[in-house]
Amino acid sequence: NDVLQLTGVSKTYGKGGPAPVEVLSSIDLRVARGEVVALVAPSGAGKSTLLHIAGLLDTPDSGQVLLRGRDMTGLPDKARTEARRAELGFIYQFHHLLPEFSAAENIVLPQLANGTPARAAQARAADLLDRVGLGHRAAHRPAELSGGEQQRVAFCRALANGPALLLADEPTGNLDPDTSDRVFDVLMALVRETGLSALIATHNHDLAARMDRVIRLKEIVA
Ligand code: ADP
Ligand code: ADP
Q: Which residues form the ABC transporter domain (predicted)?
C-alpha cells in the first residue's frame, strides 16, 4: 500500500571519471498512502538528487523506484513523463508560476496539458484557490501577489491534476518565518483534506516535527 517505494537506490555523479561523487548509497524509503514524510538533510547530502529520482526526473545507478506499486526503473522517457504528469505534483522553494498568466490560469494550464476539458479545469482551479483562501485573487498575476500568496497558488498548481504523491523541496523556504508557518499550515490542511501522500524536504525542524514521520539523510563521508 505504498505510494512511493525506493529500494537500494544508489547514485554517483561522474561515475568512471577522475572524480566520482557518491551521493546516495543504497537508500530504502517508503511513503504510505496518506502519509506525510519529512526529508531532513544537511546541505549537500543528496536531498535534491533523491527528490529528482523519486520525481522521475533522474534515474538511479542501481535500485528500484516504485510508484503505486509500479516499477518505474527502466521505463522509456515517454512513459516516465506520463507517469510524472499523472501521479506527481511538485513544489519548489520558488513558485515558478508563469508571470504572464493569472493565478487561475496557472492552475488551469497543467490540467489542459493532461487532457482535462477547459470548463472542468476552470472549476477545479476556482475550488483549489478557495481552499487556500485565494478565491478573490484568481484573476491576479503572480507579480500582484505577496510571496505567501504566490506559494499558495503554486500548491494549487501542484494539486491541479490530482496527483498520488506530492514532492516538495523547501516549500516555504523562501518566506519569512511567520509567513512560512502560516503558509505551511495551509499546505498541510490541503494535503490532509485531499488524503494526499507527500515527501517534503525541509531544513526546518519545527515543520518536520509536524509531519507523520521524519527521514534523515546523512552525508556520505567520502
Ligand atoms: P542537496 O540537495 O542535499 O544539497 P544535491 O543532491 O544537490 O544535495 O547534491 C549532492 C552532492 O552531489 C553535492 O556534493 C553536489 O555537489 C553533487 N552533485 C549534484 N549534482 C551533480 C552533478 N550533476 N554532477 C556532479 N555532482 C553533482
Ligand atoms: P505580505 O504581507 O503577505 O507580504 P504584501 O505586503 O506583499 O503581503 O501585499 C499585501 C497585499 O497586497 C497582498 O494581499 C497582495 O496580494 C496585495 N498586493 C501586493 N502587491 C500588489 C500589486 N502589485 N497589485 C495588486 N495587489 C497587490
A: 4-222
Q: What is the mean pLDDT of the chain?
A: 94
Q: DSSP secondary structure string, 52-66?
A: HHHTTSS--SEEEEE
CA dist., res. 108 & res. 119, Å (int): 9
CB within 8 Å of 104: residues ≥ 6 apart: 122, 125, 126, 129, 138, 139
Q: Is 13 in the pocket of ligand 1 (CB under 6 A)?
A: yes
Which ligand is in closest contact with the Cα of 153? 2
Length of the chain: 222
| pLDDT tens-digit series, residues 98-119 | 999 999 999 999 999 989 999 9
CB 8 within 8 A of CB 53: no
pTM to 2 decimals? 0.87
Enumerate helices (H) and strands (E) in the chain, giving the number of each. Answer: 7, 9
Mark out the alpha helices in 88-162 (DSSP H runs).
103-113, 118-131, 147-159
